[in-house]
User: Fold this.
Amino acid sequence: MLNVPVMTEPVSSPPFRIEPLGGQDDLDGVLHVEAESFSNPWTREMYAWELQNRSVCHIYVVRTVECQVAGFCAFWLVFDEIHINNVAIRPRYRGHGIGTALMQRVIDEARALGAPRATLEVRASNAAARRLYERLGFYVAGTRRNYYTNPIEDALILWRDDRGPGTEPHRPDADKPLA
Assistant:
């Protein structure tokens, strides 16, 4: 076990750590989380391609005592923003605040890298993920029609902007929840 401070959420949450992707064992774990979480998971080849440019591609993993990779978040750093490509928590670890802690860590890391803005796509029907993103300050900025496959579904384009007052684009639906 690495000598890293343990970050915990509510009492019902198992102890966990959030760290940058370490190596091939971590990538194997990411692929297992992908398979458990998505109907159209990314492949090893897709991640290998992503990891060829580590200055742009960043992956953080969640570790528990029982599980080397209980979840992960992969994002690109593009100038002053990040694009969150994939985020997932193994089903047995969901609902304990681990996803919130992971996303907050990624947002904090992005800020430290000079990127106060974040974007991602989410399935329109994924109510749990949408609630998480809304709690973290993301808002709906648009829709990508038929973006997802297995099944075909629209994606909502979400944004978060920490640059300060007056920097967000006009949002006619700003007072509406993501629901």
The mean pLDDT is 87. The longest strand covers residues 139-148. Residues 98-112 form the longest helix (15 residues). Strands lie at 16-20, 57-64, 71-78, 81-89, 117-123, 139-148, 153-161.
